[in-house]
Design a protein that fits this description.
Rossmann fold; oxidoreductase; single chain; SDR_fam; alpha/beta; Sc_DH/Rdtase_CS; 14% strand; NAD(P)-bd_dom_sf; Oxidoreductase
Length: 251
């Protein structure tokens, strides 16, 4: 049985990835700061094939403590796939002149620093596997921006750069890729207290050549593809329904 570890597993894309791989018959470890969301995930998946420790993956001591639990849980088995998904979902930081350094650092730590800390901690476990992979969940905002999203864009751009650097450094034993989600509707994949089912406008769907807004399941399927794509590493895969290649004018 193969094993995957997903950060930011409690809600949204992380929850969908964790659930998808569980349905494929994998053992799953899901990390998140949101203990309430993890409790729901634990109840849905069970502890026979899952481990769900509360962890702030942007904090070095928390990552070290949590990986002590992961090592014990694996009991000598390898970690086959790591997904660095954690991050602050809201990209808007406000006006640059009003952005405090501490707030900037929160975006950087939640995504970029977390990916560094977790990958470093997971490395000995990944090296046990015959064909290990790491997928970093970046964003299309790594290559295109909206106003006032400085810290989010910088964190995701850094994650893209970390991806190709890791691929060169850890290959061939470990392949490392990134997924850049576009507009993904995560409402149905939130914990029960925050779950929603938005009704999007026709023009929102038409903004995408694929004809719809993305779903977290789309990202989960892409992670599964990248894990089995033996000749793909150091790549950045846009999963955005074609939105980033369509010219959109204001009217």
């Amino acid at each position: 049985m193969q094993t995957i570890l997903v950060t930011g597993a409690g809600n949204g894309i992380g929850r969908a990835i964790t659930t998808h791989f569980h349905r494929l018959g994998w053992r799953v470890a899901g990390l998140d700061r949101d203990s309430e969301a993890l409790d729901e995930l634990r109840e849905a998946i069970g502890t026979d094939s899952g481990l769900f420790p509360t962890c702030d993956v942007g904090c070095e001591s928390d990552v070290e403590r949590t990986f002590g639990e992961v090592v014990e849980w694996l009991d000598g088995d390898p970690l086959d796939c790591l997904v660095n998904n954690a991050g602050i979902a809201n990209p808007y930081a406000g006006k640059l002149e009003e952005l405090a350094l501490g707030d900037w650092q929160k975006w950087i730590d939640a995504s970029l620093t977390a990916a560094f800390l977790v990958t470093r901690a997971a490395l000995p476990l990944l090296r046990r596997a015959e064909d290990a992979s790491v997928t970093n969940i970046s964003s299309t905002r790594a290559v295109m921006s909206e106003a006032d999203t400085f810290a989010y864009a910088a964190a995701k751009g850094g994650l893209d750069a970390l991806t190709h650097s890791l691929a060169v450094s850890l290959g061939p034993a470990i392949r490392v890729n990134a997924i850049r989600p576009g507009w993904i509707e995560t409402g149905p994949w939130q914990k029960s207290a925050e779950r929603s089912h938005p009704d999007h406008r026709p023009q929102d769907c038409k903004q995408h050549p694929a004809g719809r807004i993305g779903r977290p399941e789309d990202i989960a399927e892409a992670v599964a593809y990248l894990h089995t794509a033996a000749f793909v590493t150091g790549q950045h895969l846009n999963i955005d329904g074609g939105m980033t290649v369509k010219m959109i004018y204001e009217h």
